[in-house]
Amino acid sequence: MRFLLVEDNTQLAAAVLDRLAQDGHVVDHAADLETAADYIATTDYDLILLDIMLPDGDGRDFLNAQRARGATTPVIVLTARSEVSDRVGALDMGADDYISKPFDFAELEARCRAVLRRRSGTATNRIRFGNAAFDALAGTLTVDGRAISLRNRELRLLEVFFGAPGQIIPKPKLVDRLFSYDEDVSENAIEVYVGRLRRHLEGSEVSIVTVRGLGYRLEVP
Amino acid sequence: MRLAFGTRPSIRRRLTLQLLTSAAILAVVLFLIVSSFARQIGAESQDRILSASVASILDAVSVASGEVTVDIPYSAFTMLDNANDDRVFYRILQDGAVLTGYDDLPETTPGFATLPYRNETLRVVTATRRLSVDGAPIEIAVTVGQTRDAQAETLQRISRMAVYLGLGFFAASAVLAVLAGQVTAGSLRRLAGSVSRRGPQDLRPVEAEMPSEMQPLVRSLNSLIARLSTALNRTEDFIAEAAHRVRTPLATVRAHAENTLRRVDKEENRHSLREMIRAIDESSRAAGQLLDHAMVALRADHLELEPVDLNALTGELVDRLRPVAELKDMDIRFDEGQTGAIMGDAILIQNAVRNLLDNAIKYAPSETQIKVSTDIDGAVVRLTIRDEGIGFPQADATPLTGRFARGENASGVVGSGLGLTIADEVARAHGGHLEMHNNCGGPGACVTLSFPLR
User: Fold this and answer.
1) DSSP letters along B228-248, please?
2) Closest CA–CA distance from residue A93 to any residue of chain B (Å)
3) Which of A101, B165, B360, B363 sits at 20 to 30 Å (Cα–Cα) from B333?
């Protein structure tokens, strides 16, 4: 996926860039609207993350102008302002969604996924290992031609495994990926979800194996 | 000046009363001038005729062979004739002795006099003439008097006319005074009307046509409106700016903490980072809700009512929050019922519903369902949110609408204690209310937001 992040706070931008890059996305960063316009003119993006208060203008006006010009790239607005007054305008201006700062990366991912799924329709983002194919965007797993629908946590867990085949993934990291920080969950909670994934993957050529004391690993053919 | 009628002095009444008083004074003065002028004219013309009569009698006095003879000319009395048959009296004296005429006429000196005579008032003129009879000088004095009935009647007629004139003048002035009062009060009423007809958010300057005397008032009013508008805008800007200033750095810290958490392996470091993120969430939520609460209070103070489609608004929020609920494998179901149009501030209602949905997502466990439904109960439109969570700690959850109040069983979840306060305040600002129960048709909390049907 190719993202454009329009955000004037460089430290925040750096953190978002770091995270998106970790997840394997390609991200360009524009610190103001002028730079953003230059990027948009030369590159096709899958998604634009747009801050509202920028040094050279209001992100919503920029969005409005982009939409008026016929640009259809999905946009998620990042807002740091009061929810009451500010959220209203963004969707009217043509944003696909908005998220308020500070945000949980899991929520940002969920919103990106929802927007992309809504906007791209049939476009797929498929990873295939043997007879198991996983579409993170659509949230579907296909095993031997059989489509299995996944719940959100199963989907995110599978995304972690399919994103790092053959690597050992420690339980605590999986906990962080699946649960929000205000939930007190034990690492054993992960076992429930791994168990479900294993059931879904029955009959496929991939399997999730337990590496005692270390975590789990996705074995692929 | 305190007026007898009305509890407060009214400009219209005061002006009308002042104009009426001056009109009355002018009418009386007019009457007095006209009647005194008439009296004067009447008296002067009688005096002139009396003088002419006396002169013609004196002319007719002659001395023939040592005898004084007076052949009173006919015209001397006919000239005094009038419609009222005013009676005429005369007397001719020769050196003080009555020669002819009414000898009981009072003594007079030459000139005009007004005397009582035979129960009447008489206007008399006396004139003298010196003659020589056989070389001896004698003095002839002629007095002619006339009653004043005709003059009195004329005077009465003119006075009556003067009264009518005065009354007419007063009536015309009164009409004009009332009109003037209304015109003056009218421009004030127009100004008041153009201000009071406005919606609560309308802070444009007053631009109605006003008389120049009222321009200072309009100018001060406009300057007050401008200051109020600036203050309100500044407050809203401040709230937006404050949120921006607080949230952006928190977002930065949170994002870096999350990234770091992915990289570190040591459990105690991970624990610290998780605690950090929780603290950030707590403070950003508190800051956000405090600012939201301030904004809600500001907007609720001058509520701008417009028709709100509760189903559309709720549907949109449910769609928005579904990705967040899905992170916990939760499902939000929205059963749209019939809702009539409610009048309200869509932004405030949205905020209230959002807070309630946020609560349901936060407090209910994973893999449960949140049921949202709308319906009409009598004259009330209701929005009900049921979850399958821990519910409220006590049967009466009303204290939880207090600021910063949190349920005893909520300690494990990040919250500011303002969500229910905001929802409750929004409901009450719209004439509705917020109800909280446990176990209405299932486990968990059940929150109902009601608004009066338009």
Assistant:
1) HHHHHHHHHHHHHHHHHHHHH
2) 16
3) A101
- Identify the three-state secondary structure at position B306: strand
Q: Is B83 exposed, middle or buried (0-12, 13-18, 19+ CB in 10 A)?
A: exposed
For residues B90 and B81, what is the distance between their CA atoms, to the nearest angstrom?
14
Residues of chain B contacting residue A16, judged by C-beta atoms under 8 Å apart: 255
Inter-chain residue contact B270 with A11, CB threshold 8 Å: no
Single-letter residue type at B86: D
pLDDT of residue B444: 83
- In chain B, residues with a C-beta closer than 8 Å to the C-beta of A19 are 255, 258-259
Other C-beta atoms lying within 10 Å of the C-beta of residue B288: 24
**Is any Cβ of chain A less than 8 angstroms from the Cβ of B329?**
yes
Cβ separation A22–B262 shorter than 8 A: yes
Nearest CB neighbour to B244, from listed A53, A106, A151: A53
B252 near A CB under 8 A: yes
Q: Is the Cβ pair A101, B265 closer than 8 Å?
A: no
pLDDT at residue B59 greater than cutoff 90: no
Residue B393 has pLDDT above 80, yes or no: no
Distance of CA B225 to the CA centre of its chain: 18
Chain B nearest CA to A192, separation (Å): 13
Residues in chain A within 8 Å Cβ distance of B347: 84-85, 88
Would you call B303 an interface residue with chain A, using a CB distance cutoff of 8 Å?
Answer: no
End-to-end CA distance of chain B: give it in Å, rounded.
Answer: 47
Is residue B103's pLDDT more than 70? yes
B296-306: per-residue pLDDT in tens?
A: 888 887 787 88
Residue A115: predicted pLDDT? 87
pLDDT tens track for A4-63: 999 999 999 999 999 998 888 889 999 999 999 999 999 889 899 999 888 998 888 899
**Per-residue pLDDT tens digits for B133-186:** 888 888 888 999 988 888 888 888 888 888 898 899 889 988 998 888 888 888
HSE on the CB side for A19, CA within 13 Å?
24
Put simply, the answer to whether B329 touches A184 (Cβ < 8 Å) is no
> Whole-angstrom Cα distance, residue B401 to residue B422?
8
Residues B250-256 have a mean pLDDT of: 92
**Is the CB of residue B42 less than 8 Å from the CB of residue B35?**
no
B-chain residues near A105 (CB < 8 A): 255, 258
**Closest-CA distance of chain B to residue A183, Å:** 7
CA distance B409 to B444: 13
Q: Which residues of A touch B267 (CB under 8 A)?
A: 172
Residue A13: partners with Cβ closer than 8 Å, 6 or more residues away: A5, A7, A29, A31
B226 Cβ neighbours under 8 A, 6+ residues apart? B203, B205
Cβ-defined contact of A100 to B288 (cutoff 8 Å):
yes
Q: Parallel, antiparallel, or unpaired: how do β-strands A97-100 and A75-79 relate?
A: parallel
pLDDT band at residue B410 using 50, 70 and 90 as cut-offs: low
State mean pLDDT over B366-387: 91
Q: Measured between CB atoms, which of A15, A113, A183 is closest to B259?
A: A15
Give the pLDDT confidence of B118-127 residue by residue, as tens digits. 888 888 999 9
pLDDT of residue B414: 63
Region of B115 please: left (phi>0), alpha (psi -120 to 50) or beta: beta
DSSP line for B397-414: -GGGGSTT---GGGTTS-
CA distance B3 to chain A (A): 51
Q: Which residues of A touch B274 (CB under 8 A)?
A: 176, 181
The SS3 assignment for B395 reads coil
Question: Contact B436/B400 with Cβ under 8 angstroms?
Answer: yes
